[in-house]
Amino acid sequence: MAEHPYVPQSLHLPGYVPMQLSVIEILSGYGLSSLGVVLLVWFVSGQFRHLRGVERTLMCWWAFTGLTHIILEGYFVFTPDFYKRKPPNYLDDVWKEYCKGDSRYAARDSTIVMVEGITAVLEGPASLLVVYAIATRRAYNYPLQLAVCLGQLYGCMVYYGTPLLDGIEYTTAGSFYFWFYYIFMNCIWVVIPSLIALRSWTEIVRQFEHKKGKKQ
Amino acid sequence: MAEHPYVPQSLHLPGYVPMQLSVIEILSGYGLSSLGVVLLVWFVSGQFRHLRGVERTLMCWWAFTGLTHIILEGYFVFTPDFYKRKPPNYLDDVWKEYCKGDSRYAARDSTIVMVEGITAVLEGPASLLVVYAIATRRAYNYPLQLAVCLGQLYGCMVYYGTPLLDGIEYTTAGSFYFWFYYIFMNCIWVVIPSLIALRSWTEIVRQFEHKKGKKQ
Protein backbone atom coordinates (compact mmCIF):
# COMPACT_ATOMS: atom_id res chain seq x y z
CA MET A 1 0.00 0.00 0.00
CA ALA A 2 1.38 3.38 -0.97
CA GLU A 3 2.15 5.89 1.77
CA HIS A 4 0.76 8.80 -0.25
CA PRO A 5 -2.47 9.71 -2.11
CA TYR A 6 -0.88 10.24 -5.55
CA VAL A 7 -0.96 8.52 -8.91
CA PRO A 8 0.99 6.50 -9.87
CA GLN A 9 0.81 4.58 -6.61
CA SER A 10 4.24 3.14 -7.42
CA LEU A 11 5.76 6.59 -6.85
CA HIS A 12 8.23 6.21 -3.99
CA LEU A 13 8.04 9.06 -1.47
CA PRO A 14 9.81 7.85 1.71
CA GLY A 15 8.90 9.83 4.81
CA TYR A 16 5.78 11.38 3.28
CA VAL A 17 4.01 13.52 5.88
CA PRO A 18 0.21 13.73 5.43
CA MET A 19 -1.38 17.14 4.96
CA GLN A 20 -2.28 19.07 8.11
CA LEU A 21 -4.56 21.59 6.40
CA SER A 22 -7.91 21.00 4.74
CA VAL A 23 -8.49 21.71 1.07
CA ILE A 24 -10.70 24.65 2.05
CA GLU A 25 -7.90 26.15 4.17
CA ILE A 26 -5.37 25.73 1.35
CA LEU A 27 -7.56 27.18 -1.38
CA SER A 28 -8.92 30.02 0.73
CA GLY A 29 -5.38 30.88 1.87
CA TYR A 30 -4.20 31.28 -1.72
CA GLY A 31 -7.45 32.90 -2.84
CA LEU A 32 -7.64 35.44 -0.02
CA SER A 33 -3.97 36.42 -0.10
CA SER A 34 -4.22 36.84 -3.89
CA LEU A 35 -7.33 38.95 -3.44
CA GLY A 36 -5.44 41.03 -0.87
CA VAL A 37 -2.58 41.64 -3.32
CA VAL A 38 -5.00 42.62 -6.08
CA LEU A 39 -6.95 45.00 -3.84
CA LEU A 40 -3.75 46.58 -2.49
CA VAL A 41 -2.33 47.20 -5.97
CA TRP A 42 -5.70 48.49 -7.20
CA PHE A 43 -6.03 51.02 -4.39
CA VAL A 44 -2.40 52.15 -4.38
CA SER A 45 -2.36 52.52 -8.18
CA GLY A 46 -5.55 54.60 -7.84
CA GLN A 47 -3.42 57.27 -6.16
CA PHE A 48 -1.57 57.84 -9.43
CA ARG A 49 -3.95 59.99 -11.43
CA HIS A 50 -2.25 59.40 -14.79
CA LEU A 51 -2.96 55.64 -14.77
CA ARG A 52 -5.91 54.37 -16.79
CA GLY A 53 -8.15 51.52 -15.69
CA VAL A 54 -6.55 49.01 -18.04
CA GLU A 55 -3.10 49.87 -16.71
CA ARG A 56 -4.22 49.42 -13.12
CA THR A 57 -5.89 46.09 -14.01
CA LEU A 58 -2.67 44.91 -15.66
CA MET A 59 -0.65 45.98 -12.60
CA CYS A 60 -2.95 43.84 -10.41
CA TRP A 61 -2.42 40.81 -12.66
CA TRP A 62 1.36 41.26 -12.85
CA ALA A 63 1.65 41.66 -9.06
CA PHE A 64 -0.48 38.53 -8.55
CA THR A 65 1.37 36.41 -11.12
CA GLY A 66 4.80 37.70 -10.02
CA LEU A 67 4.20 36.84 -6.37
CA THR A 68 2.71 33.45 -7.33
CA HIS A 69 5.84 32.70 -9.39
CA ILE A 70 8.28 33.84 -6.70
CA ILE A 71 6.61 32.64 -3.50
CA LEU A 72 4.56 29.60 -4.53
CA GLU A 73 6.58 28.23 -7.44
CA GLY A 74 9.89 29.46 -6.01
CA TYR A 75 9.19 27.51 -2.83
CA PHE A 76 8.65 24.33 -4.84
CA VAL A 77 11.84 24.82 -6.85
CA PHE A 78 14.05 25.27 -3.80
CA THR A 79 12.31 22.77 -1.50
CA PRO A 80 12.77 19.29 -2.97
CA ASP A 81 11.66 17.66 0.30
CA PHE A 82 8.39 19.59 0.71
CA TYR A 83 6.37 16.36 0.98
CA LYS A 84 8.24 15.11 4.04
CA ARG A 85 8.93 18.26 6.03
CA LYS A 86 7.92 18.12 9.71
CA PRO A 87 5.93 20.00 10.74
CA PRO A 88 4.66 21.03 7.28
CA ASN A 89 4.09 24.73 6.70
CA TYR A 90 1.35 26.22 4.52
CA LEU A 91 3.40 26.02 1.29
CA ASP A 92 4.36 22.38 1.92
CA ASP A 93 0.67 21.55 2.18
CA VAL A 94 -0.21 23.60 -0.90
CA TRP A 95 2.17 21.51 -2.99
CA LYS A 96 1.05 18.26 -1.41
CA GLU A 97 -2.50 19.18 -2.36
CA TYR A 98 -1.52 20.23 -5.90
CA CYS A 99 0.32 16.92 -6.41
CA LYS A 100 -3.08 15.23 -6.43
CA GLY A 101 -3.52 16.93 -9.78
CA ASP A 102 0.05 16.37 -11.01
CA SER A 103 2.33 13.99 -9.15
CA ARG A 104 5.34 15.05 -11.26
CA TYR A 105 5.87 17.75 -8.63
CA ALA A 106 6.39 15.17 -5.89
CA ALA A 107 8.40 12.94 -8.25
CA ARG A 108 10.72 15.92 -8.88
CA ASP A 109 10.39 15.48 -12.65
CA SER A 110 13.32 17.37 -14.16
CA THR A 111 11.17 19.06 -16.82
CA ILE A 112 8.77 20.39 -14.18
CA VAL A 113 11.66 21.63 -12.02
CA MET A 114 13.29 23.30 -15.02
CA VAL A 115 10.12 25.04 -16.22
CA GLU A 116 9.20 26.09 -12.66
CA GLY A 117 12.78 27.25 -12.10
CA ILE A 118 12.66 29.53 -15.15
CA THR A 119 9.21 30.73 -14.06
CA ALA A 120 10.21 31.46 -10.46
CA VAL A 121 13.69 32.88 -11.00
CA LEU A 122 13.28 34.80 -14.27
CA GLU A 123 9.59 35.40 -14.89
CA GLY A 124 8.66 36.13 -11.26
CA PRO A 125 10.96 39.13 -10.73
CA ALA A 126 10.31 40.24 -14.32
CA SER A 127 6.56 40.30 -13.57
CA LEU A 128 7.11 42.59 -10.58
CA LEU A 129 9.32 44.77 -12.77
CA VAL A 130 6.34 45.08 -15.14
CA VAL A 131 4.23 46.49 -12.28
CA TYR A 132 6.84 49.22 -11.80
CA ALA A 133 7.27 49.73 -15.55
CA ILE A 134 3.54 50.24 -16.12
CA ALA A 135 3.20 52.57 -13.12
CA THR A 136 6.06 54.75 -14.36
CA ARG A 137 5.27 54.19 -18.05
CA ARG A 138 8.78 53.06 -18.90
CA ALA A 139 9.51 52.63 -22.60
CA TYR A 140 10.41 48.96 -22.03
CA ASN A 141 7.07 47.98 -20.47
CA TYR A 142 5.55 46.57 -23.68
CA PRO A 143 8.50 44.40 -24.80
CA LEU A 144 8.91 43.23 -21.19
CA GLN A 145 5.24 42.22 -20.99
CA LEU A 146 5.55 40.44 -24.35
CA ALA A 147 8.70 38.62 -23.22
CA VAL A 148 7.28 37.40 -19.90
CA CYS A 149 3.98 36.32 -21.53
CA LEU A 150 5.81 34.31 -24.18
CA GLY A 151 7.87 32.63 -21.45
CA GLN A 152 4.68 31.74 -19.57
CA LEU A 153 3.13 30.35 -22.76
CA TYR A 154 6.24 28.32 -23.62
CA GLY A 155 6.19 26.89 -20.09
CA CYS A 156 2.52 25.92 -20.43
CA MET A 157 3.18 24.21 -23.77
CA VAL A 158 5.93 22.08 -22.23
CA TYR A 159 3.85 21.52 -19.08
CA TYR A 160 0.79 20.29 -20.95
CA GLY A 161 2.71 18.69 -23.84
CA THR A 162 5.11 16.28 -22.17
CA PRO A 163 2.42 14.17 -20.39
CA LEU A 164 0.59 13.86 -23.71
CA LEU A 165 3.79 12.46 -25.26
CA ASP A 166 4.48 10.19 -22.30
CA GLY A 167 0.90 8.97 -22.32
CA ILE A 168 0.75 9.06 -18.54
CA GLU A 169 -2.37 9.87 -16.61
CA TYR A 170 -1.42 11.90 -13.52
CA THR A 171 -4.90 12.55 -12.19
CA THR A 172 -6.04 10.95 -9.02
CA ALA A 173 -9.12 10.86 -6.78
CA GLY A 174 -11.56 11.36 -9.65
CA SER A 175 -11.77 14.08 -12.21
CA PHE A 176 -11.93 17.06 -9.79
CA TYR A 177 -8.15 17.36 -9.47
CA PHE A 178 -7.62 16.94 -13.19
CA TRP A 179 -10.13 19.57 -14.25
CA PHE A 180 -9.71 22.06 -11.46
CA TYR A 181 -5.96 21.92 -10.65
CA TYR A 182 -4.36 20.63 -13.84
CA ILE A 183 -6.60 22.17 -16.49
CA PHE A 184 -8.36 25.19 -14.98
CA MET A 185 -5.63 26.59 -12.71
CA ASN A 186 -2.97 26.33 -15.42
CA CYS A 187 -5.22 27.53 -18.22
CA ILE A 188 -5.35 30.89 -16.46
CA TRP A 189 -1.67 31.19 -17.48
CA VAL A 190 -2.54 30.31 -21.06
CA VAL A 191 -5.50 32.66 -21.54
CA ILE A 192 -4.30 35.83 -19.78
CA PRO A 193 -0.70 35.79 -21.11
CA SER A 194 -2.12 35.19 -24.62
CA LEU A 195 -4.31 38.28 -24.30
CA ILE A 196 -1.53 40.44 -22.85
CA ALA A 197 0.99 39.20 -25.44
CA LEU A 198 -1.44 40.11 -28.20
CA ARG A 199 -2.01 43.56 -26.70
CA SER A 200 1.73 44.20 -26.27
CA TRP A 201 2.47 42.97 -29.79
CA THR A 202 -0.21 45.21 -31.27
CA GLU A 203 1.06 48.24 -29.36
CA ILE A 204 4.69 47.61 -30.42
CA VAL A 205 3.72 47.20 -34.08
CA ARG A 206 1.67 50.39 -33.86
CA GLN A 207 4.73 52.33 -32.68
CA PHE A 208 6.75 51.16 -35.69
CA GLU A 209 3.90 51.86 -38.11
CA HIS A 210 3.60 55.42 -36.81
CA LYS A 211 7.25 56.05 -37.57
CA LYS A 212 7.31 54.30 -40.92
CA GLY A 213 6.10 57.17 -43.04
CA LYS A 214 8.69 59.50 -41.58
CA LYS A 215 11.84 57.38 -41.79
CA GLN A 216 11.60 55.23 -44.88
CA MET B 1 26.44 -6.09 -25.85
CA ALA B 2 24.41 -3.11 -27.00
CA GLU B 3 23.36 -2.89 -30.62
CA HIS B 4 24.10 0.83 -30.81
CA PRO B 5 26.98 3.22 -30.07
CA TYR B 6 25.12 5.42 -27.55
CA VAL B 7 25.32 6.11 -23.83
CA PRO B 8 23.71 4.75 -21.74
CA GLN B 9 24.40 1.32 -23.22
CA SER B 10 21.25 0.07 -21.49
CA LEU B 11 19.19 2.17 -23.92
CA HIS B 12 16.99 -0.28 -25.84
CA LEU B 13 16.81 0.46 -29.57
CA PRO B 14 15.47 -2.68 -31.26
CA GLY B 15 16.19 -2.84 -34.99
CA TYR B 16 18.89 -0.16 -34.88
CA VAL B 17 20.41 0.27 -38.35
CA PRO B 18 24.07 1.37 -38.32
CA MET B 19 25.01 4.60 -40.08
CA GLN B 20 25.73 4.38 -43.80
CA LEU B 21 27.44 7.77 -44.10
CA SER B 22 30.73 8.89 -42.62
CA VAL B 23 30.96 11.76 -40.13
CA ILE B 24 32.67 13.85 -42.82
CA GLU B 25 29.78 13.26 -45.24
CA ILE B 26 27.20 14.17 -42.58
CA LEU B 27 28.94 17.33 -41.40
CA SER B 28 29.89 18.52 -44.87
CA GLY B 29 26.34 17.87 -46.10
CA TYR B 30 24.90 20.14 -43.41
CA GLY B 31 27.74 22.65 -43.65
CA LEU B 32 27.64 22.98 -47.44
CA SER B 33 23.86 23.14 -47.73
CA SER B 34 23.81 25.79 -44.99
CA LEU B 35 26.53 27.72 -46.80
CA GLY B 36 24.45 27.46 -49.98
CA VAL B 37 21.39 28.91 -48.23
CA VAL B 38 23.44 31.76 -46.74
CA LEU B 39 25.07 32.63 -50.07
CA LEU B 40 21.74 32.48 -51.90
CA VAL B 41 20.02 34.80 -49.41
CA TRP B 42 23.04 37.12 -49.39
CA PHE B 43 23.08 37.49 -53.17
CA VAL B 44 19.31 37.71 -53.63
CA SER B 45 18.99 40.29 -50.83
CA GLY B 46 21.76 42.26 -52.53
CA GLN B 47 19.33 42.98 -55.35
CA PHE B 48 17.19 45.04 -52.97
CA ARG B 49 19.05 48.32 -52.80
CA HIS B 50 17.27 49.58 -49.67
CA LEU B 51 18.63 46.76 -47.47
CA ARG B 52 21.64 47.51 -45.28
CA GLY B 53 24.41 45.00 -44.57
CA VAL B 54 23.14 44.18 -41.09
CA GLU B 55 19.66 43.45 -42.47
CA ARG B 56 21.07 41.14 -45.14
CA THR B 57 23.23 39.37 -42.54
CA LEU B 58 20.18 38.86 -40.31
CA MET B 59 18.19 37.52 -43.27
CA CYS B 60 20.94 34.93 -43.88
CA TRP B 61 20.82 33.82 -40.24
CA TRP B 62 17.02 33.63 -40.15
CA ALA B 63 16.90 31.61 -43.38
CA PHE B 64 19.57 29.24 -42.06
CA THR B 65 17.97 28.80 -38.62
CA GLY B 66 14.45 28.54 -40.07
CA LEU B 67 15.40 25.78 -42.51
CA THR B 68 17.39 23.99 -39.80
CA HIS B 69 14.33 24.08 -37.52
CA ILE B 70 11.89 22.93 -40.20
CA ILE B 71 13.94 20.36 -42.14
CA LEU B 72 16.42 18.96 -39.62
CA GLU B 73 14.50 19.29 -36.36
CA GLY B 74 11.13 18.81 -38.05
CA TYR B 75 12.34 15.49 -39.45
CA PHE B 76 13.32 14.31 -35.98
CA VAL B 77 9.98 15.34 -34.47
CA PHE B 78 7.90 13.47 -37.04
CA THR B 79 10.20 10.45 -37.50
CA PRO B 80 10.26 8.53 -34.21
CA ASP B 81 11.82 5.48 -35.91
CA PHE B 82 14.73 7.34 -37.58
CA TYR B 83 17.29 5.01 -35.98
CA LYS B 84 15.87 1.85 -37.56
CA ARG B 85 14.75 3.00 -40.99
CA LYS B 86 16.01 0.88 -43.92
CA PRO B 87 17.70 2.08 -45.98
CA PRO B 88 18.53 5.18 -43.90
CA ASN B 89 18.40 8.52 -45.69
CA TYR B 90 20.70 11.47 -45.01
CA LEU B 91 18.55 12.88 -42.20
CA ASP B 92 18.27 9.50 -40.47
CA ASP B 93 22.06 9.35 -40.39
CA VAL B 94 22.39 12.96 -39.21
CA TRP B 95 20.29 12.15 -36.15
CA LYS B 96 22.06 8.85 -35.52
CA GLU B 97 25.32 10.76 -35.53
CA TYR B 98 23.97 13.52 -33.29
CA CYS B 99 22.70 10.94 -30.78
CA LYS B 100 26.35 10.23 -29.95
CA GLY B 101 26.29 13.65 -28.32
CA ASP B 102 22.81 13.31 -26.80
CA SER B 103 21.10 9.93 -26.72
CA ARG B 104 17.83 11.49 -25.50
CA TYR B 105 16.98 11.92 -29.18
CA ALA B 106 17.09 8.17 -29.78
CA ALA B 107 15.37 7.49 -26.44
CA ARG B 108 12.53 9.79 -27.59
CA ASP B 109 12.71 11.77 -24.34
CA SER B 110 9.40 13.64 -24.10
CA THR B 111 11.06 16.93 -23.10
CA ILE B 112 13.32 16.81 -26.15
CA VAL B 113 10.41 15.97 -28.45
CA MET B 114 8.32 18.79 -26.96
CA VAL B 115 11.07 21.42 -27.24
CA GLU B 116 12.00 20.28 -30.75
CA GLY B 117 8.32 20.22 -31.69
CA ILE B 118 7.85 23.84 -30.62
CA THR B 119 11.08 24.74 -32.41
CA ALA B 120 10.19 22.97 -35.66
CA VAL B 121 6.49 23.80 -35.89
CA LEU B 122 6.36 27.33 -34.43
CA GLU B 123 9.85 28.82 -34.52
CA GLY B 124 10.85 27.37 -37.91
CA PRO B 125 8.08 28.99 -39.99
CA ALA B 126 8.32 32.14 -37.82
CA SER B 127 12.03 32.39 -38.69
CA LEU B 128 11.27 32.30 -42.40
CA LEU B 129 8.59 34.93 -41.84
CA VAL B 130 11.33 37.10 -40.30
CA VAL B 131 13.32 36.86 -43.56
CA TYR B 132 10.31 38.26 -45.42
CA ALA B 133 9.57 40.82 -42.70
CA ILE B 134 13.11 42.21 -42.78
CA ALA B 135 13.21 42.30 -46.59
CA THR B 136 9.94 44.24 -46.73
CA ARG B 137 10.60 46.16 -43.49
CA ARG B 138 7.30 45.17 -41.93
CA ALA B 139 6.44 46.92 -38.68
CA TYR B 140 6.24 43.55 -36.89
CA ASN B 141 9.77 42.45 -37.74
CA TYR B 142 11.33 43.52 -34.41
CA PRO B 143 8.75 41.98 -32.06
CA LEU B 144 8.77 38.85 -34.22
CA GLN B 145 12.55 38.57 -33.97
CA LEU B 146 12.36 39.13 -30.21
CA ALA B 147 9.65 36.48 -29.84
CA VAL B 148 11.48 33.79 -31.84
CA CYS B 149 14.80 34.50 -30.10
CA LEU B 150 13.19 34.20 -26.67
CA GLY B 151 11.64 30.89 -27.73
CA GLN B 152 15.04 29.62 -28.88
CA LEU B 153 16.62 30.73 -25.59
CA TYR B 154 13.87 29.10 -23.51
CA GLY B 155 14.38 25.89 -25.47
CA CYS B 156 18.13 25.98 -24.84
CA MET B 157 17.59 26.52 -21.11
CA VAL B 158 15.35 23.45 -20.91
CA TYR B 159 17.67 21.49 -23.21
CA TYR B 160 20.79 22.19 -21.15
CA GLY B 161 19.03 22.35 -17.79
CA THR B 162 17.18 19.04 -17.54
CA PRO B 163 20.29 16.79 -17.86
CA LEU B 164 21.96 18.85 -15.13
CA LEU B 165 18.98 18.13 -12.86
CA ASP B 166 18.85 14.47 -13.82
CA GLY B 167 22.58 14.14 -13.27
CA ILE B 168 22.92 12.00 -16.37
CA GLU B 169 26.01 12.00 -18.56
CA TYR B 170 24.91 11.59 -22.17
CA THR B 171 28.29 11.90 -23.84
CA THR B 172 29.87 8.94 -25.50
CA ALA B 173 33.07 8.07 -27.40
CA GLY B 174 35.19 10.64 -25.56
CA SER B 175 34.75 14.35 -25.19
CA PHE B 176 34.52 15.24 -28.91
CA TYR B 177 30.78 14.62 -29.12
CA PHE B 178 30.11 16.41 -25.86
CA TRP B 179 32.04 19.55 -26.73
CA PHE B 180 31.35 19.75 -30.44
CA TYR B 181 27.76 18.50 -30.77
CA TYR B 182 26.22 19.10 -27.36
CA ILE B 183 28.00 22.29 -26.29
CA PHE B 184 29.27 24.06 -29.41
CA MET B 185 26.48 23.33 -31.89
CA ASN B 186 23.75 24.26 -29.42
CA CYS B 187 25.59 27.27 -28.03
CA ILE B 188 25.23 28.87 -31.45
CA TRP B 189 21.50 29.07 -30.61
CA VAL B 190 22.29 30.67 -27.27
CA VAL B 191 24.76 33.31 -28.46
CA ILE B 192 23.13 34.52 -31.69
CA PRO B 193 19.52 34.66 -30.39
CA SER B 194 20.81 36.54 -27.32
CA LEU B 195 22.45 39.15 -29.55
CA ILE B 196 19.42 39.48 -31.83
CA ALA B 197 17.01 39.61 -28.87
CA LEU B 198 19.08 42.42 -27.35
CA ARG B 199 19.12 44.30 -30.65
CA SER B 200 15.35 43.89 -31.16
CA TRP B 201 14.63 44.89 -27.56
CA THR B 202 16.78 48.02 -27.89
CA GLU B 203 15.11 49.01 -31.14
CA ILE B 204 11.59 48.52 -29.71
CA VAL B 205 12.40 50.55 -26.59
CA ARG B 206 13.87 53.29 -28.79
CA GLN B 207 10.58 53.56 -30.70
CA PHE B 208 8.63 54.09 -27.48
CA GLU B 209 11.20 56.58 -26.14
CA HIS B 210 10.93 58.65 -29.31
CA LYS B 211 7.20 58.98 -28.83
CA LYS B 212 7.27 59.60 -25.11
CA GLY B 213 7.88 63.32 -25.18
CA LYS B 214 5.05 63.89 -27.61
CA LYS B 215 2.27 61.84 -26.03
CA GLN B 216 2.69 62.01 -22.29
UniProtKB/TrEMBL annotation, chains A, B:
Q: Which residues form the EXPERA domain?
A: 54-197
Report the InterPro entries cross-referenced here: EBP, EXPERA
Q: What is its main location?
A: membrane
Q: Where in the cell is it found?
A: Membrane
- Could you mention a single GO BP entry for this protein? sterol biosynthetic process
Sorted alphabetically, the keyword list is: Isomerase, Lipid biosynthesis, Lipid metabolism, Membrane, Steroid biosynthesis, Steroid metabolism, Sterol biosynthesis, Sterol metabolism, Transmembrane, Transmembrane helix
Q: Where are the bilayer-spanning segments?
A: 20-45, 57-78, 112-135, 142-161, 176-198
Give a Pfam family name. Answer: EBP
Topology relative to the membrane: Multi-pass membrane protein
A GO molecular function annotation here is:
steroid Delta-isomerase activity
Q: Which GO terms describe its cellular component?
A: endoplasmic reticulum; membrane
What the record says about family reads: Belongs to the EBP family.
Under PANTHER family, the record lists: 3-BETA-HYDROXYSTEROID-DELTA(8),DELTA(7)-ISOMERASE (PTHR14207:SF0), STEROL ISOMERASE (PTHR14207)
The name this protein goes by in its record: EXPERA domain-containing protein
Q: What is the lineage of its organism?
A: Eukaryota, Viridiplantae, Streptophyta, Embryophyta, Tracheophyta
